[in-house]
Amino acid sequence: DVKVTQSSRYLVKRTGEKVFLECVQDMDHENMFWYRQDPGLGLRLIYFSYDVKMKEKGDIPEGYSVSREKKERFSLILESASTNQTSMYLCASSLGGGPDTQYFGPGTRLTVL
Amino acid sequence: QKEVEQNSGPLSVPEGAIASLNCTYSDRVSQSFFWYRQYSGKSPELIMSIYSNGDKEDGRFTAQLNKASQYVSLLIRDSQPSDSATYLCAVRRGSNYKLTFGKGTLLTVNP
Predict the structure, then answer these.
(1) Interchain contact, A99 vs B104, CB within 8 Å
(2) Which of A17, A42, A85, B24 is most open to solvent, judged by the fewest CB atoms within 10 Å of its CB?
(3) Residue B81 carries which DSSP code?
(4) Cα–Cα distances in Å, from A25 out to A22, A61, B56?
């Protein structure tokens, strides 16, 4: 079974703090993704990575950065958290090639006060 | 025009009935189609994937794809209360890594 884990289920931070969200997959997947999910807006792609040290912007990259130093780990960084970044953050990974099904982690509910 | 559209619902069906969930997409180059189920407070889990026109069955679930009409649907036979969830349609364009998601349809199965 594919296993995607995220470092925290719930996180509360203050405005202006630097926030790190970590995602780890154990299936040697090439691709990893960060989404946020908000009521009425659905799932929106923030960033994705198709190889170590490679990244591409998704639909809403502003205010975020990412890091992928090892194949199994993909980090999302909020350089200076703001209240409008309060959301559910979901990490996903996919094998790469072919149909390329994405598998999701359990999510991190981030609240920025 | 929205890229992937779903009726937001809620769609309410009685237990044992067939639930029909629909999704339309705008990009004709789309090649891979996925249905995810998401329980409240949980992350999406893959139910079905379909890549060719026609029907694909897996247990009580059937995915239907019509590329000419640009729609994909999910039928759930013998619906159970445990099927109550939000169903997300996702579309992948060619060899692009990116999935585009619809906003989901909330399904409620009433005992």
Answers:
(1) no
(2) A17
(3) G
(4) 10, 22, 29
Dist. CA B12–CA A108, nearest whole Å: 29
Close Cβ partners of B13 (under 8 Å, ≥ 6 residues apart): B19, B79, B107, B108, B109, B110
pLDDT tens digit string along A67-106?
999 999 999 999 999 999 999 999 999 987 766 789 999 9
| Angstroms from B109 CA to nearest CA on chain A | 21
Task: Render the burial of B28-67: b for 16+ CB within 10 Å, e for the rest.
Answer: eebebbbbbbbeeeebbebbbbbeeeeeeeeeebbbbbee
Beta-carbon contacts of residue A30 (< 8 Å; ≥ 6 apart): A50, A51, A71, A94, A95, A96, A97
The pLDDT-based confidence of A4 (bands split at 50, 70, 90) is very high
A–B interface: beta-carbon pairs under 8 A: 47
Residues in B whose CB is inside 8 Å of some CB of A read 32, 34, 36, 42-46, 49, 51, 88, 90, 92, 97-99, 101-104
